[in-house]
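This protein record is not my work; I was only asked to verify it. The record follows directly below this note.
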Amino acid sequence: MANVATIHPKISPQLTLYNFINDLSEGYDGVIRGAEKYLPKQLSEESDDRVYNARLKLATYLDSFNPIIDGINGLVFQQPIKIENEDQDLQAFLKNSTVDGKNFNSFIKKYFKSALKKGRSYAYVDIPQGAGQYATDVQRREAGMKPFVTFLRPEQIINFRTKIQNGKEVITMVVIEEVIEVENAENEFAVDYETQYRVLRIGSVSVYNEQGEMVGQEISTGLSYIPLVELNLDEDGCLFDAKPPFLDVGRLGIDNYQMFSDCRWSANTACIPFLVFTGWQDEEAKNTVVGPNTGKTTSNDKANLKYLDYEGKGIKLSLELIDKLEKNINQIGLSIVTSDRTQITATEKTIDSIQTQSKLQNWVDSLKMAIRQILKYAMDYENKKFDGEIEIKADIIQNALSPQEMLAYIKLAESRKLSTATLLKLLVSRGALFEDLDVDNELDEIESEDTAFREMVIEEWHHYKKS
């Protein structure tokens, strides 16, 4: 008997990876909850959980994964996506794209952010259940049956089949794992969850329960394809397979977490000086109370009592390793959003800039292609074609000026080796000034200010001579 919950061999190893990224996505809480998975026990703690739990409470995780993801997502979507098409059905879809009433820009930000985290994400274009009973597009519209798009995490895709058709790989079957909320027959206030499997085939959709039994009837879509759109950010990846672009950041973050936590535990233990008794009888040293208002006496005039402090050489080495880890993390993250790195040659900087622009441009191009496919599928349900232009303002991150570069250009203008007009145009094109800045008007303002300043100086000079 066929098992609908069967996991494709290519997907199975990726699921563990996605669990790791899900923990990272929860930040501090997700990593700390992982306990031994991310902060292993030491040999001395194997037989005593109390010691390990005490160390875990002092563990410190500094999240570097989420700030990088949020930073890039925020830069790409500084401005809403522009879609040039006046079709009323398309405009209605853009304003109300999901079953919970989110607009298209909101959906795409979530869609792209998921791909930044996991390398790929999915959009499924669907129509409301029951729409199949309406024979024509007009009847569907009159009944308010509009297409919508559903976001799918990559780990929800557990199985698939493809074939080569006209020289192109085409999806013929996809199995989606879904967790749904169901009513509790015994308690109306209780919430129960069940797992079900949605199977997409060309022209149809069917749903199965955990026992592999079909729920309801197979639904016809009337489409000659499966309206599922993959956003894949891995240049070397393939359909249903992609390496998360910031996986190394996450792994280095865990290395940093372990090193920093161990360092903090060592510092917490070693920062307390301890008393050393020499020349004391056991009975004399026993039950010693340490404090500012206590003392100790002995009959042995050669006895000694002193505090010993830890030199901290091991902690110093740990801090140096932590510093190196943090620099590696920052270098990976910042190389995507800026070409500003210290202590590098001009050649390295040029290569950095080209690689950064190329990677970002590829990601944005992939996103545009995915958006176009989503809109095509949505319009197919309306028996229309989408042929509009899609604009994503991502050039500001491709061409961002570093502080050093900006200062260098300003100095060129000050030394009259670069005109003020060229400087202003450069700053506008590289995102350092307002995009809609009128350069000619700005030059007129500068000239008028210079004229007013000269007239003020001349007037002050004449006033001085008269006095």
Q: What stands out?
A: The longest strand covers residues 168-183.
